[in-house]
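Sequence in, structure out. Go.
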Amino acid sequence: MSDTSMEISGVSTETLKHINDENANLRDQLATLKAKTEMYDAQKRESLSGMKAEVTGFIEMVAGENPNFKHELATMSRWSEAMETGDALDTSNPHSPLLSPALHT
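Output:
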């Protein structure tokens, strides 16, 4: 844009430069936060994947021993089968070790 069009719109060149610089800075911050979140999520997914077989087996064992609670345990069974794939990693991670029999021995 030319200086003339800037003056007509009421936005100075300095203001436009400041806004563009701030925008670039915010984009850099966002990219950094996304990279950190992706790394953190990958670590959580790996941890949950490592517990998946034990947690699923434990829930199946409890369901087999308590057929009267089959419907209540079905929700937990569905959760355990996909606990490392969902977006709710923060809610899945604390519960999995509680259900892992290996951590109770």
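Check: The mean pLDDT is 81. The chain has four helices and no strands.
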